[in-house]
Amino acid sequence: MHHHRFSVAPMLDWTDRHYRYMARIMSKQALLYTEMVTTGAILFGKGDYLQFNEQEHPVSLQLGGSDPQALAECARIAQQRGYDELNLNVGCPSDRVQNGRFGACLMAEPALVAECTQAMQDVVDIPVTVKCRIGIDEQDSYQFLTDFIGTVADAGVEQVTVHARKAWLQGLSPKQNREIPRLDYPRVYQLKRDFPHLTLAINGGITSFEAAHAHLEHVDGVMVGREAYSNPYMLAQVDAQLFGDSEAVMSRIDVVEQMIPYIEQHLAAGGRLNHIARHMIGLFQGQAGGRQWRRHLSENAHKADAGIEVLTQALKLMQDTAQHVSKLQQQNSEQGS
Ligand SMILES: Cc1cc2nc3c(=O)[nH]c(=O)nc-3n(C[C@H](O)[C@H](O)[C@H](O)COP(=O)(O)O)c2cc1C
Question: pTM higher than 0.85, yes or no?
Answer without folding.
Answer: yes
